[in-house]
Amino acid sequence: MTLKTTLIKNAKIVNEGKIFNGDILIEGEYIKQISESISAKSADVHVFDAEGKYLLPGVIDDQVHFREPGLTHKANIETESKAAIAGGITSFIEMPNTNPQTTTIEKLEEKFEIAAKTSSANYSFMFGGTNDNLDEILKVNPKSVAGLKLFLGSSTGNMLVDDPKVLEKIFKSTDMVISVHCEDEGTIKKNLQDHIDKYGDDIPIKYHPVIRSEEACYISSSNAIELAKKTGARLHVFHLSTGKETNLFTNDKPLKDKKITAEVCIHHLWFTDKDYDEKGTYIKWNPAVKTQTDRDQLWEALLDDRIDVIATDHAPHTIEEKENVYTKAPSGGPLVQHALPAMLEMHHKNKISIEKIVEKMCHNPAILFQIEKRGFIKEGYFADLVLVDLHHPWTVKKDNILYKCGWSPFEGATFKSRITHTFINGSLAYKNFKFYNVNAAKQLTFNR
């Protein structure tokens, strides 16, 4: 079999803190050569002119909810992975709170089978912990599974892990990354009941960050970190939403040596509580979007490396579900198509460099989860690549939203940058709102 060979010429390559003009030779699924100038050696080489666009490693989103199986009226792996590659996300790690939940090896394997047939992006899944599935956790293969996900608050089904003895056993039993959702359930329940007593079910949305408060986040995060320090576990705290929590994390060593890490999501970097008036329950997330001060402090911690990763927490619901009264409207929203354009918009506003975006969205997820041969533009690595035109404005509208749910919290926003091409394992899978059915996606593997 002849390997397909592609030569990308005239790109501004962004990798490991540098931007340089160069060419990339792709042979089959891998990057064969990176150089200032490469010539096509034969007529069989497909030469592709990047025309000076920025070439980034494919984004790795370590936190998505693609809703399959069981919740496919909202989304599925096929639709959301397509939206992801249109947004420059070439690999995703999906969460276990589907229906049924991914808390047994059998259910995990079923999800891998679905993704192998339908995913446009490279994929892995988190395995879910509960109060009573430690035996299943011990069977998980760390080379083929991204890690463990624990809900220490705000879970669906029986996934709230609230037994301290079980929690300590899980923390002691695995070397894999334990990713946690931290909000203290007791604090939230009390706050919610206080607001229901006052307003009934139709609580004004502006009280969402009061109900799911800074205190609820901080209590839970600090407890998880204390337990990780006690047990030596490898802990990753998902979606920080408060400035106070950022003080729990350090920047005194490189990411590869950290035992306790953190991430922030696009919505907590973009919106504040002032946006509830206009956006309503469309920006109802758990943890809640909070104050301008919180957002400023999250940015500060991101840029000084106390926060290691930017993710989406992509979690679609239908418009009908989101338009319910407060207590019935689910939390979460779709984000994978618009995450990278939103961060590039922040670059245009001089908030963050492109090199830093690549570090937090591409390099660091790969380092943190020990993903094999992805997240960087390096010879011998998989050719997961994204071409970006920084000066090609487009407006988010109903007719270009690719999520199955059909809406976006960014609807009406104009982004200056667009993702023009996405390569998955060396194959062009997406170009300017057109998809190529190349079936190039692969299961992620982990160097553990």
Automatic annotation (TrEMBL):
- Superkingdom: Bacteria
EC numbers listed for it are: 3.5.2.3
Q: Which InterPro entries match?
A: Amidohydro-rel, DHOase/Allantoinase_Hydrolase, Dihydroorotase_CS, Metal-dep_hydrolase_composite, Metal_Hydrolase
Assigned keywords, A-Z? Hydrolase, Metal-binding
Output the Gene Ontology cellular-component terms.
cytoplasm
Q: Which Pfam families match?
A: Amidohydro_1 (PF01979)
What GO MF annotations does this protein's record show?
allantoinase activity; dihydroorotase activity; metal ion binding
Looking up Gene3D superfamilies in the UniProt record yields: Metal-dependent hydrolases (3.20.20.140), Urease, subunit C, domain 1 (2.30.40.10)
One GO term under biological process is: purine nucleobase catabolic process
> Needs which cofactor?
Zn(2+)
In what residue span(s) does the Amidohydrolase-related domain sit?
A: 54-427
Entry's family note: Belongs to the metallo-dependent hydrolases superfamily. DHOase family. Class I DHOase subfamily.
Concerning NCBIfam families, the annotation shows:
PRK09236.1 (NF006688), pyrC_multi (TIGR00857)
Task of the protein: Catalyzes the reversible cyclization of carbamoyl aspartate to dihydroorotate.
Report the protein name in the record.
Dihydroorotase
Species name:
Wocania arenilitoris
